[in-house]
Amino acid sequence: MSARQVDPVTVQILRNRIAGLMEEMAHQFFRSGYSTIVRESRDFSCVIIDAQGRLIASPPMFYHATAYYYLAQKIISLYGAEGLRDGDMFVANHPYEASTPHAPDMALMAPIIVDGVLVGFSAAIAHKADIGGTVPGSSWGQAVELYQEGLHIPPMRLYDGGVLNADIERIIAANSRQPRLVLGDLRSQAGAVRAGRERMQALAREHGARTLADALDAMIEAAGREIAAAFAKLPDGESEAEGWLDTEGGIAPVRLHVRARVKQGRVSFDFSGTSPQTRAPINLRPALVEACCFHALIGLIDPALRYSDSARALVEIIAPAGSAVNAQPPAPCSSYMKSCQRLIDVLIDALNPFCPGRAAAHAGGSGGSIVVAWGPGPRAVHHNQHEIFGSAYGGGQGGDGASGTTVHLSNIYVTPIEIVETEFPTRVLRFELIPDSGGDGRWRGGLSFRREYVVEQPATVLYRGDKALNPARGYAGGQDGRHSRFLVDPDGPGETSMPPNCRVELKPGQRFRIEAAGGGGFGDPALRDPAARAQDEADGYVTPAQD
Amino acid sequence: MARYRIGVDVGGTHTDLVLTDDEARAYRIEKVPSTPHNPAIAVLAGVRRLIDSGVSADEIAYFAHGTTATTNALLEMNGARTGVLINEGLSGVFEVQSQGRDGWSPFDHFFRRPEPLARPRFMRGVKGRINYRGQEIEPLDEDGVRAAVHDLAGLGVESIAVCFVFSFMNDAHEKRVAQIVREEAPGVLVSLSSAVLPRVREWPRFSTTLLNAWLAPVLARYCREIGEGLDAAGVLTRQRFLMQSNGGVMPLAADAEVHAVRTLLSGPAAGVRGASWLLGQVQGWRNLVTMDIGGTSCDIAFIQSGEPLEQADSVIDGRVVGVPALDVTTVAAGGGSIARLDAAGMPQVGPRSAGAAPGPACYGRGGVEPTTTDANLVCGALNPDYFLGGEMKLDLAAAREAIRTRLAEPMGVDEETAAAGVLRIVNAHMSDAIRIQAAKKGLDLAGHTLVPFGGAGPAHAALVAEDLGIARVLVPRNPGAFSALGLLCTDVRHDYLRSEMASLAALDPAHAEACFAALEAQARAELAHEGLDAESAALEREMDLRYAGQGYELRVALRGLPQPLDAAALGEIARRFHTQHAAVHGHSAEDADVEVVSYRLRAIAPMRKYTPAPEPVHAVADPQPRGARRVTLGPERAFDAVVWRREDLHSGWFSKGPLIVEQRDSTTLAPDGWAARCDEWGNLVLERQA
């Protein structure tokens, strides 16, 4: 490669231009997407990657970031770089074939070809409302094999030289409970990917395809130097940490264990102590494990560091095949998010000694999600209600954890009450922080929230929760955060506490309540500033101690 | 008699005043140092200075003011102690907000929200509920409200925000709370979410309402002070106005309980409004991109067919504001932006700025880091001896030193090349932002004219235009005072809105007409209350529409449709929506259901605006250039530019570039490949040569 020939100013200008282009793609998609997931929760990402599949800049949805590389590599190995044509666009949602997180996350990827040169790819991954499988929404907390999690598409051409293969759309539509929404979103997604490709082609014509390809190389190398310089400041050493994933129904608990070693600016993560893959859908694929490792590293070293795929050269990941962090088919993996969230907590635990100034306790993880399929009644409902909730951060060196927020890899908007009630036959009775839900400590864990609904028509509620059994752990003497709960008809004679993955049938007038897990506390509670404690009591964040 | 009109724009270091004389169709500029601790002092001092210079106070017919009072209060966290009343059980709306972490690195586990404007101890839940159709399903607990108000008043709140879900469908509960507050706690201001922003989605509405409540006492006090100061100075006109975020003005006496939050983004609005009136409507330039460059940032806006584009939601200092504002994008690229090499050895410019102190290295106030201004000086775009008309001498040696040690030597290039690299990067930041915004709005930049203002704008404009493929740059007569002039180029504009979700296909035209009629009655009543002529006001209707199931709306104008609305008109509205959707998003779906989300009305009460007279082509002798200097824009781009003085140039003047035009408040660069002319309106027009 002759990357050296492009001057640094031009490289920098092109880097900003491409980052801006990714933003443009995301904006176009989000404005034109149809489903709640795209329009309110923004559960999608858009990227430009180089001809090898390497990211130039990371999308805000970082857990998608590492998948693109594997998908591009897979497409190249299937079709050969020479076999790619201008106007092609590939579709895939297969966690094992395409490295996408789970079936609902569908990827589209289009090669960018100018003057016969493969400059890179324009791509997007977006969560689809329903892609078949046992339950509405496709992600079933009790799935025991991949085949229950929906239609799986290995990488194949959705567009061949610019021509839509409508048969694939028909297969997707025939397998989805919400074909209109899914195809609407898929077309918006294709529009965003196409826009990225066209803009990159225009850039290639402006600067020359070769120069653009070389500049991509140079920007990835530059980002790599920046990361290497940051890693070089870590002290050498070794540390380990573990955490447990909630399981139920007689499935053995899953241990996540990591041994982190730092030697001369190189980091290795050895997951050999992690449990074997499990029948519960909480298994991870290597792309997601990588995302967790980089997320924790960047968060602890310097959150302003820019990720690029050149960071891979500095990090070694040992994840034995057949373990829960390198699952093999047909292990189910639709509930990957809570595993990722817990894995990041474990990684932060292990890395805390290397970066004491940014050390932190566990966060509350995924706040859970609901899919509600509405039965008949006076109000016609056209689609499922799908909501994803946040939790809270753990306390950290120098400050309390933030309350009521998505954490780590998740950055998802809450659906407004007024939208929920306008579109679905339900009312939100409570939406408030849970006092005392953050672990006590010198720096308190953040408080999680509860959200309670009353249903006005028959409803099937699918709930997938996290940290119901193993709460967010405190650090350095801090106390654990409160665990999560899912209750039916709370605060009444019929109150029932449900397991963390469940499907419940509710009659009109019944209520259900989600309570997310709070963040862990950091440091000895005896050292907490009395003024901060008084503040918390005045604001109702903690209830005063009873003497 | 009453011939003078005054515009006052408050900036970080200077407060600019423009005085127009309707008889002479000319204007005059004054400048006084700003008084950040209380901006009203400088405003009134400037007015007094004009009067002292011979302008008779009773001949001043109009006073318009762009205030930073609320913006500064927010940035300095100096609002009023504020209480909140919210539906019982729903306080999480304020705690969880969007649930996302916008504006933060996704990797940062030390995420912090901005400090709350009302801590939970100032928040009370009350019983009472309206449903999604606007029906009461639980009565308001008036005793509970009374107790809560009493309680909050006891805590010393000056202002209360009332935030109930679905109040935009039925405001009865919120209105009743306002009455109770007046009874229980006279003197405490009340902001109702149904009055501040009656729009669906509770978090943006509550956030905006709380901000309004928190700012209302601040704005009310400020307006009182300005009003009393004008009275004391003998400026007795009732035509006293404040600039708003939407680019219109409102009376100084407008109701702060509803309008305070509408001044929050008024800072950049005046210049954009000036461009839309003077350049767009008076002079007939159709599609403009404005670029207002100051010390730390560059504000970008678009004007289409004479009207600036607007946005429905903004974020200011991490807070969501849902009232309409001119769509201004701020890029951290200004004269003080600092250039450096990052850890990977790659050159970066901004977002850090040297600000006014220490300022760029060439200011000689102790700055050692190279900035955009230093790069402009080293490249030859700026004249060290004619900055602010020579009032301030720039230290070229210090600028060279900063660039040599921090950039040129580590990069292994000479100083001019390094400085030119800084300019390329900072210009690309601006052009990237313009390109992204244009794409978001579905605009094609070809055919647009770039309008730079603010002192630093005209030096960059031609180079930014080259990046964007724009062929024309229009530099107004006084780029430095353009915002103050813009205050005298606008009308009173009030925005009204009502959310009510319904299928457009199933909508009864009579019902839609009734919704608009109610908004119109509200508008007329408010204008009359403000002492304005409600009958001559233009009332513009719009609808927020979306495809059923989509989460974001497009604003569709109803201009030209019959009143009362009929079925054919609703069909035309649907057609306009499909067309607009295709233009903005690249696709439309004629077979999909279109949903009404909100009805909007804008009332425009026309004001007399500054209207320049065209200047006939001058017959006087050709002006002479004041010299020439070397300008370096890169290793392969350097030229000798002829230097002109702005006051020498008159209508009809033309010259091929490369050239530089210097004036007291700005410097314009027309590089090789460009030509410049002076038009009959006093603009400097740069055009790219084929």
What features would you describe in this structure?
- The complex is a heterodimer of chains A (about 550) and B (about 700).
- Chain A contains eleven helices and 19 strands.
- By secondary structure, chain A is of the alpha+beta class.
- Chain A folds into two domains: about 5-225, no CATH class; about 360-545, no CATH class.
- In chain A, the strands form four sheets. In chain A, strands 1-4-3-2-5-6 form a six-stranded antiparallel beta sheet, sandwiched between helices.
- In chain A, β3 and β4 (about 115-125) form a beta hairpin.
- In chain A, α1 packs antiparallel against α6 (about 180-205) and α1 crosses α7 (about 210-230).
- The longest helix of chain A has 29 residues, at about 180-205.
- The radius of gyration of chain A is 23 Å and the shape is globular.
- The model of chain A has no long low-confidence stretch (mean pLDDT about 95).
- With about 700 residues, chain B is of the alpha+beta class.
- Among the domains of chain B are: about 5-75 and about 220-265, Nucleotidyltransferase, domain 5 (2-Layer Sandwich), CATH 3.30.420.40; about 75-215; about 490-605, Dna Ligase, domain 1; about 625-690, no CATH class.
- Helices cover about 30% and strands about 25% of the residues of chain B.
- Chain B contains 16 helices and 35 strands.
- In chain B, the strands form nine sheets. In chain B, strands 13, 14, 15, 20, 23, 24, 31, 34 and 35 form a nine-stranded mixed beta sheet that branches.
- In chain B, a hairpin with a 5-residue loop joins β11 (about 240-245) and β12.
- In chain B, α4 (about 140-155) packs across α5 (about 170-185) and α10 (about 370-380) crosses α11 (about 395-410).
- Chain B starts with a strand and ends with a strand.
- The model of chain B has no long low-confidence stretch (mean pLDDT about 90).
- At the A-B interface, α1, α2, α6, α7 and α8 of A face α3, α12 and α16 of B.
